Every structure is written in C-alpha cells, then in structure tokens.
Amino acid sequence: MALAIFDLDETLVACDSCSEFSKFMVAQGLAGPAFDVRHRQMMALYGSQQLVLSDYIRFFLAPLSALSCSDIQDLLPGFVEQYIVPKIYPQALQTLGEMRAQGHRVLIVSATAEFIVRAIATKLGVEDVLAIELAVEKNHYSGEIKGVPTFREGKVIRLQRWLSEQNETMDGAYFYSDSINDLPLLEQVDYPVVANADLQLQRIAEKRQWPAVNWAGTYPENEQAFCVTPLESQETTHV
C-alpha cells in the first residue's frame, strides 16, 4: 500500500516537541530560564519562515554539550512520558491506527532533532522516521547538522533518498501537516491533508481545496488512556 506520512509537532502532538524539551532542560537544571525565553523567540522566527536552522540547532544543543549521546538517550523516556504523552491528539492516534489497518506504511518526517523524534515515534508505535540528523564527535553532539536537514525543501530531498533506499514510491501517498514550512512536501503527494493548520497554510488549503482536519483534546496523564502498543513489543501494529 501507499505511504502515510505525518509531520510531528502540532500535527500528531499539541505542542512543539523542541519547545517542550527546552522546558525539560530548564526543569532538569541543564539550562536557565533565559534559554527558554530565547527558544520561544526562535520559534516565532520559525513560524514566520525566518529561522536560520543551523543557528537554531547550535543554540538548542549548547546546554547538552557536557552530556554524551548515551546520557541524553537516558533522559528521553522520562521526557516523553511527562511532556509529550499528555499532548498527543487522540484523533492522531486513531488516524495512525486506521492507516495501519488499511495497510499503509507510516512515516514521520519532522524538522526536529532525530533523537527527540525517534523517542516520540517509538511511543506512537511508528518505526520509520526522517528527522534532523546531528553530527557526533566522541559520543557527543557537536552542534552541527549532518547532511540535508528535514526542513522545508529538505524534507522532499531526504524523502526522495529514503524512497530509493526503501524501494518505495510516492504513488497514492498521504501527508498530514500543520505548517506552511511543509508546503514543498504537501505539493508532492497525491493526498495532502492539513491538520491544525497555521493561518498561511489554511489559506492555501482553502484555495486548493485540500482536505483539512482540526484535532482537539489530548490524553490525560494516565498511562491506561494511552492505547498504542509499544513499538518494541508489537507483532501487529494497531490502535
């Protein structure tokens, strides 16, 4: 079957996962309050399509410079449970499940650091991920981006390479996204769907008559309410 591609932030989850990780770093004592203030300023630049991604990645990783990649990995389960699970859209989980049931291969493509995206994707039961790869030196993130970042047109470039590696095609593909920054990829798929769209994307979707969904509500901080089978224990993935 075809691909079912999803953006992550503000599409599957009612938050920006990097912003949540920024708050997490402050709560863990890895960064001060000024870091979170500056992070919000940078997110405003992202929303207005003015963000310089390489500058942002250096800024974002600076508080983690003393930690090894393994140390950071150890922090992620707690971060996901506390900061992300309560913000997952129930309708997103339902849609992921429906796509799997129909035989679609689910892929998350995100302009967020790969270590964050993979941790959240695992919780969502999604194995295939394309995200911003980070350069590593001596088991520490160097602050530099590795290869082509999955940002704006870079999402299309990385996806095309992945398709070739996986012997997949874009025939009949879906892509769900909230952001005007994802317009290049939305224009590549047979079935673009805008989810919780920002104003610029909403206007374009209306002109082009693209389907739109507006998901609301999140799961309570109750593990029993979260009904995805963890990826590592799945035999048949479903919701």
From TrEMBL:
Any one GO molecular function term: hydrolase activity
Family annotation (Pfam families): HAD
Lineage: Bacteria, Pseudomonadati, Pseudomonadota, Gammaproteobacteria, Oceanospirillales
Keywords for this protein: Hydrolase, Magnesium, Metal-binding
Highest taxon listed in the record's lineage: Bacteria
CDD domains: HAD_PGPPase
Name assigned to this protein: HAD family hydrolase
SUPFAM superfamilies, per database record: HAD-like
Organism: Marinobacterium rhizophilum
UniProt-listed NCBIfam families: HAD-SF-IB (TIGR01488), HAD-SF-IB-hyp1 (TIGR01490)
Signal peptide: none
InterPro entries, per database record: HAD-like_SerB (IPR050582), HAD-like_sf (IPR036412), HAD_hydro_SerB1 (IPR006385), HAD_sf (IPR023214)
